[in-house]
Amino acid sequence: MQENQRNVTEREMEVLQLIHLKMSDKEIGEKLHISEFTAKTHRQSLRGKFKAPTSAILREKALKEGYVPNTVKCSKFCNQRQIQSKQMQFEKQEQQVGKQERQVGEQERQVG
Asked: Are 5 and 53 part of one and the same domain?
């Protein structure tokens, strides 16, 4: 993580990690036990500090500057739904690879 040149507070860093996970203000509030309004205020403050007109640009700048990890790993902020979603995506990819491997094997048998 890069030196904190934008004077991001500890709480804003927590909010920034959750924004990086594409959580809404309501979800951030629930996760950090703060109001949705407070979560929105932190998001607006972060957008100002990063000169980001949108949350997408905020995520991009925070990633580029090293404020959030390059890979989304489940930290204390991940919830069960996100973990299950990641697992389902992985399993679906595995199934697709397996299907492609079977197709290639079948084609090789037909040729050989």
From this structure: yes
